[in-house]
Amino acid sequence: MTGYNHHAEGQTGGNDRGEDDSVRDPAELSSPVVPRDCPSCRSPSIHHRIEVRSKVDLEINPGDVLDEYWGGFRRDDFFFDYVRCGSCGLLYNSEYLRDDLIAHAYSDMEDNTSGVPQHLLRKTQGRYVTAMENIAPMDGVYLEIGPDIGLAAKLAVERGSISKLVLVEPNRATHNALSLLAPTVDTVVLESIDEVDRGIQVDRLFLVHVLDHLANPRDDLVDLRKRMAAGGLLAVVVHNEASFLRRVLGRRWPPFRLQHPQLFSRRTLTTLIESCDFKVLKVRSTFNTFSARHLFATGLSMVGLEPRWLSRVPEFALTVPLGNIIAIAEAT
Fold this sequence. Notes:
Radius of gyration: 19 Å
Largest sheet: 7 strands, mixed
Distance between the termini: 25 Å
Shape: globular
């Protein structure tokens, strides 16, 4: 998520060299949108073709914060057009919002788990933890970017021997709850990757539905790798833009939305991770557990419906494949 980003290297409009904003082009500073080349391989976007166009044509003006389009699902949603990189194959936005606008949107929003019973969320998060446990136990220093309410971190503590929790969450509304997540474990809650101690040696790193939100995913992965111990494990969960569900739904596929400046497939996810000094050990599909009511509500909102009878739909659990994938990688 842009709220995590510590610099904007390679992104026009960034200010990663310590330049004084007062001497930069005023038009560049006032524009709410900045151009991007491929955030994985840096291939120039001018050579890349548009593959997915937004149905909504929205003119963004300076000062817009786009809160209306930031959360939830709706029939006619706005997102930036997605182009396909001709070099590495990544699907990404060749233009995206300025960092400060995205930081504003992430700083005070509902957590991503809102509306889903917590015992069902634990089942999904538990599968992510298990995927890493199948490689090695949950122990040592645990770092998670974008933990929301901290379910995966709590499970890691309960099921392993975690000596320290470092949780980076730009949504300040969750910080108090995160700080109390594991009273017996040294816990640090931060707002930005920038704030993570550069001398730390992380053993277990989780990025659950985070990499597709970052404006500069390769830069952030490289920076996070520097904070990891050799042999440390990384878990990344993302939407799979090559999934059957995406092919069926076309541009109505829910991950095509303003929050996702890029979307991955198994191949492009592996390419990015391994370019940052990790070795991908496995990539596989994941399953999500939701209540029947939540699934119905999400599906109906995508077609513009909110029927009154929805409250009568039972809350029984359904475990379904939603076209997501998890990659487990080792720091080399």
